[in-house]
Queue: 2 jobs
Job 1
Amino acid sequence: MDLKLQLCDYEAKLNETTGGYDMSESIILAVLGIIGTLSGTILTQIVHIKLERSKSIEKAKQDRYETKREKLSDIYNELISIINLFPNISPNDVLQFVENGPIYSLENFEGVLSSLDIQIDHYKKQLSIKDIDYERKSNIETHISNREYSKKKIIKIRDKYYLAKEKYKSFCESDKIVFDLYAGQDVRNHLVKFDVIIHNTFISGYRAGEDCDPINNINLVTKRNLINSIRNDIGIY
């Protein structure tokens, strides 16, 4: 029965019991009661609809996470292991402490190592100078030590870089199609940024920062941001 019929029926009953006296105040109260009941019913329905919608959205989100985990779990694990293989520093981060040392760029590890060898040989010959004074000898030995230490660091950087580069190339050739199909946009954006940083570090020769500085080392920051985007993409917090 609609509202108008309910009011008419209620008014008729009031007239029967009151002898037809004016019961406008009672009618108003009845109307307010009916409106309140309807409002409560509508509000309850709205809340129910919103709860159901929220549950549906949450379920869709969980289903999406499950799909991503199923399709991307192994691929993401492989990608994380590869990006962590890339060195955190450039040869130029090591060479900044070598006075008049060579400058690295364009993956020219061998050229830098060869230049350091030449400089080491040069300084070793100076040590053979007859009657060399203590201060000069100490200074030359420091130059030699710095270069030998730098060589060891750069060789480690070179080996890690080429291993990571080879594995990353293999990843792009085998898993990149699935990655591009299912990976979230944020992950793909951070991977592009990572590619740029690796290019800047090992091709352009930019310095990355201190090896263990999680705040200022650009390579470490970029790796961390990429890994965090991967965790968020599959719902791991």
Job 2
Amino acid sequence: MKISIHELKDLTSIEFDANYSKHIESIVDFIDIKPAHIKGTLRMIENELVCDLHVDVETVLACSKTLKPVNHSMSFDAEIIFGDSEDADYPLTETIDLSDIIFGYIISEKPFTIYHPDAIETSFEKEKSPHPAFADLDKLLKK
């Protein structure tokens, strides 16, 4: 969603859906993403725009062990400040594209690892056999 500075005088709140299916094509662990629902408030404070946003999105991620699809829902809040001060996250330009910025937040909120229920019992490491000099000691420990 693109917002121009001239529209900000009339807007105090926003609510829209953003489709990110094209954005995830180059991201390996995303299998699918439903349209994200974004709602929030907009406030002009001096020369800064403060956006308090709430994002809800349903995703399908690849399991970290087996690559099986795992449904994952995300819900998070974000405060984004546009302006020229040190506290600002982004510069305040003539038009602001919130959709791309929110996609960056979705990527950062995504878990690093996620497991399919079947993956908990899956192990890819082979059991190591002891050195032949210690084989008899290993038998003592397994009694």
